[in-house]
Predict the structure.
Amino acid sequence: MIHNTKCECGHQNPTGTVLCESCGKPLVENLPLDTPLEMRYDGAARRSQKQNPDVIDRVWNFFSSVKIAIWLIILTLVGAAVGTIYPQESTFINLDDPAAYYKETYGTSGAVYQALGLARTYESWWFIGLLVMIGTSLVICSLDRVLPLYKALSKQQVRKHLTFLTRQQTVLETEIPGDADQWVADFGAQLKRKRYRVWTDGTALLAEKNRFSRWGPYINHIGLIIFLLAVLGRSVPAWHMDQYVSVDEHQIKQIPGTDYYVGNDKFTVDYYKDEELPDNLKGTARAKLYQTQATLYACTQYCDDDPLHDPVLEKVESHAIEVNSPLEYKGLKLYQYNFEEKIRLIEVKPMLVDAVSGKSYGPFDLKMNDPAEISQAGPYTLKLNDVYPDFGLDEEGRPMTKSRDFNNPAFVFLVTGPDLDSKGELYIYFPMPSAADKGVQQQINDSFKKLGSNSGRFNFEVGKMENVTFSQFTTFLNVRVDRAMPYVWVGAAISMIGLVMGFYWHHRRIWLRVDGGRLTLGAHTNKNTYGIRNETAAALAKTGVDVDPKALDNRRNTQ
Amino acid sequence: MNWLDISSTAFQAAFYLYCASFICYAIAVAGKRWSNRKPELHNRRWGRFGFILAVAGWIGHLTFFFTRWKGGGHIPTSNMYEFMTFLAMAIVFAFIVVHLIYRNNLLGAFAMPLVIIIIAYAAVFPSEVQPLIPALNSYWLKIHVTTAATGEAFFAVGFAAALVQLLRVIDFSRTDKAGRREQKWVEFVLFFMVVIIGFLVSVFAFRGGGYEAKFRQETAHIDQQGVAQTLTQTVEYGLPPIVAPYNSEKISMQPYLGIKEPLFEAPSWMNGVNAGRKLNTVIWSLLSGAILYGLLQLIARKPIAAVIHPHLTDIDPEDLDEISYRAIAIGFPVFTLGALIFAMIWAQIAWSRFWGWDPKEVWALITWLFYSAYLHLRLSRGWQGTRSAWLAVVGFIVVLFTLIGVNLVIAGLHSYAGV
Ligand code: HEM
C-alpha cells in the first residue's frame, strides 16, 4: 500500500510515518477511529518499516520487533525455570557419572532430564543462544527506535492539527473567557511553575517536561547489553576460573591449572555456645565462625611436575580466609567454602630403637604424603619398600590400601647398617598412635620374623609430641578468577540508571490552540495519565477554566 | 521488659490495627448502602479511618522491627518468620505510597487482607531469634533482602489492584465461552486465596490443640566426598498425617477423627527435605480450603466474585489499570536493584560468584523476566486492561513461588526452612 506521504500542512514525510512529523495529523487512514492516537515514537518512521525489505532488512525487522523480544524473554524464562526442576550438575563438586547419579537419585524422570542435557541447562547452546538473541534484539531494537524518537522530539512544531489534539489521551475542548493571547500567556506561566518548558506560536502552545526520561529505556538497554557481553565473556577461559581445593592443615597444595600453591597453616572453628542458641537448637554444633590461616605461594621454578626437583615456592600473600573474606592476589581469589573435621597425620619424626643395645637413633623425617625413598637414622639406612596410605587387609589377609587418602598409613622399611645381614631387615611401621594399629604392627613384624625377614631387634618410637605434625581439619577452598566482573557491575549500574530515569520521571507534553475563543487542548504522557490530568486541571483552574480532572480523560468517552 | 518483649507486643498491636483497618475499608466499600449518609461521604469517612489505622499499624510494625533488631543483635530478616513479617511491612509501605498517589479506598480493601494473610503465614514459622550462619552474616545480605522485599511489596500492591480490576470488569451477564472462562478464572484466584486461609486455619487449629505425630525416616544422602550415606531423621508433624513420609516408620501419632494410621505414604520421588510433611500440609490446605469455600457458597449461594463485584462500581477500570501498572512500575527498579544487583554483590562477596544458578536466584531472575515481559507487553496495543491485569496476578504468583514455593519444593543454598 502506497501512502501519500505529503501532509496537508505541506510537510513531506518519509514513508512509514504515521503522524505528520510537523503538524501531527494522522497520515494513515486505517488507524482505529475512536481510540486515542498511538503516540509511540511520535508516529515517526522507523527503519524496520521499510518497503520491499531485503535479507538484511528482514533480519533487522525480526530483531527490532518488541513482539519477538517478548517471545525471547518468555522462552528464556521458561528455559530458566526448567533448569530448576532438578539440581544442576554444576552444584556437585565431584560427580563422576552424572547419568548414573540422576537415575539413582531421581528415578526415570531424573535420567531423562539428565539425558536431555537439562542438568546443564545454563551452559547449553540453546540457553546461551537465547541470551545472544536477546542481546542482538536489544541492540537492534534500540537503534531502530531511539534515532527516530530523538529526531521527532528535537524538531517539534508548536501548532498541531486539530485531529491530533482531539485524539490524545487527555483532551479538553471549551470556550475560554477573555483575551486569547492573555489566557495563553497566563496558562503558560502556570505550567512553567510546574517546571514545564513552554513554547508559544501565536495562540498555540506547547509545554513539555522530563523529556530525558524517554531515554531511560534505551540507557537501560545499553546497560543490559554491556552486562550480557560481560557474562558471555566469562566463557573465555582466561577470563574465568572456578575450582575447588581441599587442603589439610600444614599441607601445601598446588591450585590446579595455575602456578600457585596454597598452604593451610592453621584452621580454627568456633561453635555457638549453648546459651547463645534458642531452645530448639541447644546441643547441636552450629559453627559461628571458621577460618583458614592461608598462605599463597607462587612457583618460580620446576612447577610442572618435574620428577627430579621439588617446585621452588615463593610466598606472595597470606590471609585469614573466612566466609565473606577471601584471600585475594592479582585477580585470584580463594574463598572459604567448607570444612571437615578429620584427624590426619602430616609428618612424624620417629626414632629407630634398638631393643638389643637399648640405643635409639634418629629422629628421621617421615612425610605422610611424600615419604623419602631413603632415610638415615644414626648409622642405619632405611629404604622405603612399601607404602599403604590407608592400611587394610584383603580377603586372603594380605596387606592392601583401601584408598589413596592418608587415613591410616603404614610404611615398610628395609633397614641396613652395622651388625645387620647384608640383605637388610624388613619392618613395618604404623605412625598412628592407636593401640589397634600398634597391635597389627607387632603381628606383622612377628610374621616377618618367622619368615626370617627380620630379627625383631628394631622398633620405632615417636616419643615427644613435637615430633608429630597432624591436621585436625581439612579446609575446602573455592578458587576463582573473574576478570569480567568490572563490566558486569558497570552494565548493572547503567541499567539501573536507565530504569530510574524511565520509571520515576514521566515525559509529559501539553499542546493547545485557541481558535476564535475556542480552546482545544491535548496532552500526552508515556506513563501516569492520572498525574497529567491533575496537573492540567490544576493549571486550568488557576486560569479560570474549572474542570474535573476526570472529565479530561479521553479514553473512557470512546469506549 | 526487654527489647524482645516490647517487640512482640508492638507486633500484636500492629496486627490488630491492620485488622481494624481492613474492617474500616470493608465498611467503606461495602457499607455505602446501609448508612443514610451520602455514599461518597461514607466512603471517604471510613476510608480515612482505614488509612489512619493502617498507618498506625505500620508504625507499630516498624517498632516491632527495630526493637527486634536491637534485642536480637541482627536485622530481623534471616529466617522465614522474620522475612515474611518484613514483607508484610513492606507491603503496607507500598500501599501507603500508592494510596497517597491515587487515594483509592478499594485498594485498601484488598491490600490489607493480603497483609493480614502474610502476617498469619509468618506466624506459622517459629518466631525465636536464631543465630546467623556465617554465609548470611554480611550487611549486603540485609540490604539485598530488604530491597528485594520492598520491590516485591509493590508487585503485591499491583496484584491487589489488578484483582480489583478483574472483579470490577467481570461481566456476570455473559454466558458465552470466553465470558464463562473469565468468571471461572477470577473465581479460581479467589478460591486459591481461600485455600491459603484454609491452610492457616488448619495449622493454627491443630497447633492450638497441641497436635503432634512423629515418624522415623531413612534418607539417602551424598556427602562432600561423594560417598553415599544413610541418614535417619525424625520428622515431626503438626498436622494429622494423611500422608506419611516416604520410607518411614511411625513413632507416635495422636488419633484424629478415629483415624489411627496415616492413609498412605508419600511417593519415592518425594525425597527432599521433609517432602512428606509438605505434601501432607498441601492436602490439609486443600481440604480445609474446600470446606471453607463450601461454607461460603452455602451462605452466599453464588460465586464469591459475584458477591464482591457490585460493590466496585464507583471506580473506572482504566484507573485501576493505571494503579496496578504504576505500582509495578515503581516496584520494578527497586526489585531489579534488590533482588538481582544487590544479590549479585552479596553473592560475589560471600561466594566469589555473582551468579551461581541457585534455584532461588534463578527464580528471582524468572520473576524479573516475567515483569519485564509484562512491561514490554504493555507497550503493545491490546495488552492493557484485563489482559495486563491477569499478567499482574500471575506475576505475583511467580513472586510467591520464588519466596515460598522454591523453599518448599526445591531446597537450595538459602537457609530458610520450609513448613
Ligand atoms: C529482548 C530484547 C529487548 C528489546 C528488543 C527491548 C525493546 C524495548 C523497547 C522497544 C522499549 C520501548 C521503549 C520506548 O517505548 O520508548 C523497551 C522498553 C523497556 N525495556 Fe526493553 N527490550 C528488550 C529487553 C529488555 C529486557 C531484557 C529488559 C529487562 C529489564 C527490558 C526492559 C525494558 C524496560 C523496563 C522498558 C521500559 C518500559 C516502559 O517504558 O514501560 N528490555 N524495550
